[in-house]
Amino acid sequence: MTTNQATSHPExxxxxxxxxxxxxxxxxxxxxxxxxxxxxxxxxxxKATTSTTSDIGMSITLxxxxxxxxxxxxxxxxxxxxxxxxxxxxxxxxxxPEPGPTE
Length: 103
Hints:
With 103 residues, the protein is an alpha+beta fold. It has one domain. It is 45% helix and 20% strand. It is built from five helices and two strands. It has helices at 3-8, 42-50, 55-67, 71-76, 79-90, and strands at 12-23, 30-38. Helix 2 (42-50) packs antiparallel against helix 3. The longest helix is centred in the middle third of the chain and has 13 residues, at 55-67. The two termini are 21 Å apart.
C-alpha cells in the first residue's frame, strides 16, 4: 500500500445501518444498528473466497467476519449498506478501486 492509499483509506469504518437488523424474538432478540469494519486479515479473505461461489455470498461472509457479527446479520442488511461496506473492503484488495482525488 502506498502512502497515499494509507492516508486516504481509514483504518476503520462504522456504518450506521439505515434499517437495524433484529435477530431472534422476544427478550432474547438482538438488534444490530451498526457495523464496524476494519482491514480484513488474510485468513478472513481466504475464508470468504472459499466459502461460496457467488460474489454476493463472498461479500456477506467477509462483512460478517470483519465486523464480528453473525452471518445472518450481514444477510439482512440493506443494499445501500451492503454497497458501502463492499466499497470500503474493496479498498484493501488489489482488485479494489483506487482512491480518487480528495476534495
